[in-house]
Structures are given as structure tokens and as C-alpha cells.
Amino acid sequence: MSIVVTGATGALGRLVIEELLKRTAPDEIVSVARDRAKAAGLAARGIGVEIADYSRPETLQGAFASGDRVLFISGNEAGRRLTQHRAVIDAAREAGVALLAYTSVLGGPSATFSIAEEHVATEQALLASGVPYCLLRNGWYHENYTGTLAATLRTGAVVGSAGEGRVATAARRDYAEAAAVVLTGSGHENTVYELSGDTAWTMAEYAAEVSRQTGRQIPYRDLPQERYVALMVEAGVPALGAQMVADADAGIARGELAATPGELSGLLGRPTTPLAEAITEALKELPV
Ligand SMILES: NC(=O)c1ccc[n+]([C@@H]2O[C@H](COP(=O)([O-])OP(=O)(O)OC[C@H]3O[C@@H](n4cnc5c(N)ncnc54)[C@H](OP(=O)(O)O)[C@@H]3O)[C@@H](O)[C@H]2O)c1
Known about the structure:
45% of the residues lie in helices and 16% in strands. It is an alpha/beta fold.
């Protein structure tokens, strides 16, 4: 019986492992990764490593054991995820895991933008499987925005298609800590958590905070969806990814990522990380 984290070599997975190590011993943890070399650092710290690929169901046999408490981190290959996710759920069911916590999307079925589709279908597959579940319906990360601060400062504007919609972001680390709380706690079976930051902000408010912290005038430029897609493609973002990001912005404009029920801070036992703090941290990381 272990605590298992899939997607353990990704950005969220690595943070979850750090949070688990604050709460439990390394030999209680198993990381599931598709690339052994990427997982070498985890193995060196005494964490178990299982090599498995969501796209190759045979590799998932043996990734889980009876009684495991598993964090299933959603894949990042849009369009292929439902088939992949079904394979993970099947393997978890066959192994008889005690809990399968899945990183879904804030709002679940009420999120109508395209990124949400595979999450909603995965939720349905998980519920139909009979495996004890926990839906961690994660809202957007601060890092979705602060991760492009260098480009924002270079071009002198925040761009998007979110209009005056609000988005309740939290730090990726906040979501990671909440996952660790669920994995190491009790009573989370067959529950749904709507996880989001304590404060929902508009893109114009984000641009104003970037302006305040940098001492520059950085406006928010709202673009029609097609124009925003074209701009991202010009900057090197693959077309499908660009369309999905712009479509999610349309969802933000409709208010679909704005909910602030306080369930993330409730699990953490503290407020979520303020956006202003994430901007400060990201600015420190930029080359001067
Ligand atoms: N809430 C948000 O704002 C937000 C933003 C971005 C993404 N997401 C979603 O949340 C997930 C976690 O976020 P993140 O920041 O950690 O993303 P990430 O760094 O891209 O991590 C995704 C993880 O999934 C693993 N993975 C992908 N396809 C796989 C496959 N076929 N078999 C096995 N493992 C596979 C990756 O393995 P490798 O390490 O080998 O690449 C990686 O570890 C993402 O995958 C995406 O579904 C949410």
C-alpha cells in the first residue's frame, strides 16, 4: 500500500512529491513516470519509481497495487487524453486501489470550453468505474500568466480574449499541497472539490499589477479570438494548443473559471497564494 503519483516528473507532480515528503517517508511514495531518466532524481531520494505510459495500457499493469492511494495527474496530449485516461482508470480498478484522485477542471461539466471536454469525460469514466474517487477540480494556475511575463514585458502588453471575465487562479504549489493533503488524509473518498484561488481577477487588473510592480505602463489588450490564436501561432505555439487557450479565454469571459468557493484554502488551512506574490516571484526569475 503506497501513495502513488502519476505524472510525477511534470511540474505539478514534482511539487506534489515535495509536499508528500513533508508528510510521509520516501519509501511510502511511488512515482509513476514514462521516462526513467527524468525520474532518476526521485529514485535517488528513495522514492519508488514505476515506468508506465498512459498510451500503452500494458505498461500500466503493475503500476498500482491493492490499497494504493493514487493521484492521477491528467495527461497533456490534447485529443488523446480520454483513451489514455480510460487505460489508467482500468489499471487502477484491476489493481483494487483505495482511492483514485483525478486532477480535473474547475466546474466540471459546467465548464464548456474545449480543454474541459476530456476532463468531463474522464470524470464520467471514473464515476462509472466504481473505483473510490476524489475529483480535484483545479482552476487555472497563476503560472499560466506569470509564465509568459518575459514576453509580456518585451511586447509591452498583456494580451488575451478573456474580456472583462474574472479568473480565480492559485499557485500550482497550492494545488499540489491540496493534493498531498487529500492523499495523506482520510474521508476524501467519493468527494468533489472545486479548487480555485481566493480572489478572482480580470486581465486588466493583472496588467495593472504587473505595471505597478515593474513601474511600466503595461495595458491589457483584448483581442478577437482568431487574432489571439494567430498571435500565439506566430509566437510558436502549436495551432491546436493556441485554439484551446483562446477558447478557454472565451470560457473565462463567460465566467466559467471565476468561482471562489474557498475549498482550496479550506483544504490548505491557509489563504491561497496571492497573484501579486506570484508576479513578484516570477519577476525575480527573469534575466535582468
Ligand atoms: N489548471 C491549470 O491551469 C493547468 C495548466 C496546464 C495543465 N493543466 C493540466 O494539469 C496537468 C498537470 O499540470 P502540469 O503543470 O504538471 O503539466 P505538465 O508539466 O505538462 O505535466 C504533465 C505530466 O503528465 C505526464 N504525461 C503526459 N502524457 C503522459 C503519458 N502518455 N503517459 C504518462 N505520463 C504522461 C507528463 O510526463 P513527462 O514528465 O514525461 O512529460 C508530465 O509528468 C496537465 O497535464 C494538464 O492536464 C492544468
